[in-house]
Amino acid sequence: MAADHNAARRSVLMGGAVLGAALASGAAAAPTPDGRSDTEPHQLGGEPVPEPSSEQSAGPIRPGRGSMLQGKVAVVTGSARGIGRAIAVEFAANGADVVCIDICGFVSTASNAKPATPADLDETVRQIHGYGRKGEGIKADIRDIGALRRIADDVDQRYGKIDIVVADAAIQRWVPLLEMTDADWRDVIDNNLNGTANTIRAFAPKMVPRRHGRIIVLSSMQGLHGTKDAASYSASKWGIIGLMKSAALELGEHNITVNAVLPGLVDTALTRYEKRFSESVGEEGQKIESPTPQQAWDIRAPTVPLKVGWLQPDDISPAAVFLASDAAAMVTGAEYQVTGGDSAKDV
C-alpha cells in the first residue's frame, strides 16, 4: 500500500510539466498578458517601484511550475489581490478549482493600505477562469466566524469537498506602540490572528470526515522578530505561528496538515505606501522621511543575499502550491520562509 502511494506521488511530480502544458493549452485565454497576477501599477506617487530582474524572481505564474493540484478544491481568504490572489491563481494554474473570500472594502482605521474592492476580487476570479478552472468570489469578513461557517457548508455541499484552505487575509499598521489607539492594536489582532483562527475553525471540520486536508496560514518574517513601530502586526504574525503548530498537533490524527508560509517584504497594495518604504529604510539604519521607491530599493537590496529590495506576490505562491500538494503529505507544523535570503540573517 505504501509503495503504491509513493509511486502515485512520484507520478504526480514527474507528470507535472505535461499536465501543466495541457492546462495551458486548454485555457480560454491568458489570465494576464505577462502572466503576472498583480495588475495594479507598480508605482507610488507617480514614482515607479523597482522590481526584481527575471533572474532574481520566481517569474510569472505558469502551469506546471509547482506540484499539480488537479481535481482539488481550494478556499483562499484575502484573495482579492496581493499574495492571496497569487496563491489562488497559482492553484488554478496547477489544476485546482478555487473559492476566493475577501471583505472587498474597509476593514479598520488600523490599516495603512487602501481597501481591496469587488473589482479586485472579480479580477482574481477572471484570472482563475483564464486557466480553465472553476472560480468564484465571495464577499465576507473573516472576523465573522458565523459567516465563514455558512460559506464552508455551502462550498462543501456544492463542490462535494474542500481539500485546501489558505488563510491569507491581513491588515498592517505602522505606528509606535505608545501612540497606538485601541483600534491600532485590537483590530490588527482581531483580523489577522482571530480571523486566521476563525478560518481554521470554520473549514477544518469539513476535512475531518474525509481524513484529508491541507491548511496553509500566512505569517511573516515579522512573526519571528520584533518590529519597531509595528507591534500589533508583529504580535499577530507571531501568534499565527503558535496557532499553526497547535493546529498541526491536533489535526494530524485526522490526516490534515497545517503549515505556514512566511514571506519577507513583498511589493503588494498592503505594503506599497510611503510609511512602509520609510520603515524599510529605517530597518537598515538609515533615516529618510519620504524615500522614493528607488531609494528604498537601493538601500535595502544590498543587504539581502539575492540582492532584491523586495519580492513579488508570484514569488510566494509556489511554496503554497507545494504545501497544498500530495508531495507535502509528510510536511506539517512547518514554517516555509520565502524572503530572497532575509531569513539567513535570523537565528
Structural account:
The protein has 347 residues and is α/β, with parallel strands linked by helices. Helices cover 40% and strands 12% of the residues. The chain has a seven-stranded parallel sheet, sandwiched between helices. A two-stranded antiparallel sheet has the order 1-2. A hairpin with a 2-residue loop joins strand 1 (43-44) and strand 2. Helix 3 packs across helix 10 (313-324) and helix 6 (182-207) packs parallel to helix 7. The chain is globular.
Give keywords.
347 residues, alpha/beta, 7-stranded parallel beta sheet, two-stranded antiparallel sheet
Task: Give a topology summary.
Blueprint: H1 2-14, H2 16-26, E1 43-44, E2 47-48, E3 73-77, H3 82-93, E4 97-102, H4 118-130, E5 135-139, H5 145-159, E6 164-167, H6 182-207, E7 213-218, H7 231-251, E8 256-263, H8 274-282, H9 293-300, H10 313-324, E9 335-338
Parallel strand pairs: 3-4, 3-6, 4-5, 6-7, 7-8, 8-9
Antiparallel strand pairs: 1-2
